UniProtKB/TrEMBL annotation:
CDD domains named among the record's database cross-references: homeodomain (cd00086)
GO BP of this protein: chaperone-mediated protein complex assembly; heart development; lung alveolus development; negative regulation of cell differentiation; negative regulation of transcription by RNA polymerase II; positive regulation of gap junction assembly; positive regulation of skeletal muscle tissue regeneration; positive regulation of striated muscle cell differentiation
GO MF terms, alphabetically ordered: DNA binding; histone deacetylase regulator activity
Subcellular location: Nucleus
Protein name per its UniProtKB record: Homeodomain-only protein
GO cellular component, one term: nucleus
Annotated ranges, domain Homeobox: 1-61
PANTHER family: HOMEODOMAIN-ONLY PROTEIN
Annotated keywords: Developmental protein, DNA-binding, Homeobox, Nucleus, Repressor, Transcription, Transcription regulation
InterPro entries from the UniProt entry: HD (IPR001356), Homeodomain-like_sf (IPR009057), HOPX (IPR039162)
Length: 73
């Protein structure tokens, strides 16, 4: 069920991903990621990539660096 490979997730899949990002967890553990992937009909890799990109976008919108670094950097 990977019709999104060339064009990215479908609108319905993004809705599921966004809901989980905003309401459940911005940093899902592997079990949660697996459940979200199954719910959205995506692979775990695709779901993890989406969360990583979405987190970077969220961090930029909050005025934070897109990547989390230690305070000593």
């Amino acid at each position: 069920m990977s019709a999104e490979t060339a064009t990215g997730p479908t609108e319905d899949q993004v809705e599921i991903l966004e809901y989980n990002f905003n309401k459940v967890d911005k940093h899902p553990d592997s079990t949660t990621l697996c459940l979200i992937a199954a719910e959205a009909g995506l692979s775990e890799e695709e779901t993890q990539k989406w969360f990583k990109q979405r987190l970077a976008k969220w961090r930029r919108s909050e005025g934070l660096p897109s990547e989390c670094r230690s305070v000593t950097d």
